[in-house]
């Protein structure tokens, strides 16, 4: 039975000139529990030393509903300031455009401020990727595009992407931008398969966008499945994982990475060993039959 190709050791972000690891590490929980800069640095080193060079954060990370806005960026900024050489080892991505408690604001004045504030907290002059975190329905995409184009022209941002955008919202922003978007960041997991069937990944392949999958483990539900559907998906992943000597978690990452759109799963763990473990996904072999078996379990019904 033919096997699907293994993921490459690196991917070109949006098919351009930035090489990224095929797995990213996300920092939405970096600033929790009073983590110190030294402890955060250990996590950054765990990712980089494992070969995970793509680091994803956002200005909203650290916000608990009342306080903490920008804390994850600021903590990473402390790490970078203490070891400036780390910056050259990473592809740094952040996001903005959420303003609690509105919750969204991509008006020109706030968006310019949000970009500048992220750079200040991160203590860098430029980020490699800046993504609109969630779409502001009240912002005209032409206005958003103008701010983003200006930020790229000013050297503050290398590449642009979107997160949690619909197909049409992505197309509208791209229409007004003076440069191509390179990424899209939807929720994708073996328990969240909407993107496989609603055209988002087809659009990504058409436009050359690299899909970055947030919550690739279904918000932790794959680790502790409770419903019959979750248990069925976990069982299929366990079957593959056991056969190839990897954990259910690694099998889940690998399942996403086998898709031809070149999905980059974002590891959310803040444990060094779990971060490093993710790179084992590059060794997992999938046949079409096994890949579709996971999809059938996720659908809860046979394919037509």
UniProtKB/TrEMBL annotation:
Domain NADP-dependent oxidoreductase: 22-291
Record GO cellular component, one term: cytosol
InterPro entries in alphabetical order: AKR, AKR_Detox_Biosynth, NAD(P)_OxRdtase_dom_sf, NADP_OxRdtase_dom
Molecular function, one GO term: oxidoreductase activity
This protein's name: Aldo/keto reductase
Native source organism of the sequence: Novosphingobium aerophilum
């Amino acid at each position: 039975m033919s096997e699907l190709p293994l993921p490459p050791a690196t991917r070109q972000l949006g098919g351009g000139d930035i090489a990224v690891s095929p797995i990213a590490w996300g920092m939405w929980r970096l600033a929790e529990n009073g983590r110190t800069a030294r402890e955060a640095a250990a996590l950054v080193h765990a990712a980089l030393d494992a070969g995970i060079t793509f680091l994803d954060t956002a200005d909203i990370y650290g916000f608990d509903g009342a306080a903490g806005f920008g804390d994850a960026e600021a903590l990473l900024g402390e790490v970078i300031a203490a070891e400036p050489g780390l910056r050259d080892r990473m592809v740094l991505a952040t996001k903005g455009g959420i303003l609690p408690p509105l919750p969204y604001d991509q008006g020109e004045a706030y968006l310019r401020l949000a970009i500048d504030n992220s750079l200040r907290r991160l203590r860098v002059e430029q980020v490699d990727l800046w993504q609109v975190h969630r779409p502001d329905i009240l912002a005209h995409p032409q206005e958003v595009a103008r701010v983003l184009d200006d930020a790229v022209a000013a050297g503050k941002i290398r590449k642009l992407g979107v997160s949690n955008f619909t197909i049409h919202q992505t197309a509208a922003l791209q229409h007004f931008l003076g440069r191509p978007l390179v990424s899209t960041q939807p929720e994708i997991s073996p328990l969240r398969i909407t993107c496989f069937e609603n055209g988002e990944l087809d659009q990504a392949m058409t436009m050359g966008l690299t899909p970055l999958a947030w919550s690739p483990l279904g918000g932790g539900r794959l680790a502790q499945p409770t419903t019959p559907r979750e248990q069925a998906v976990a069982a299929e992943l366990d079957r593959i994982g056991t056969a190839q000597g990897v954990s259910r978690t690694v099998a889940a990452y690998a399942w996403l990475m086998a898709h031809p759109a070149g999905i980059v799963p974002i590891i959310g763990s803040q444990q060094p060993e779990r971060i490093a473990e993710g790179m084992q996904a590059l060794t997992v072999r999938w046949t079409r039959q096994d890949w579709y078996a996971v999809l059938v379990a996720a659908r809860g019904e046979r394919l037509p």
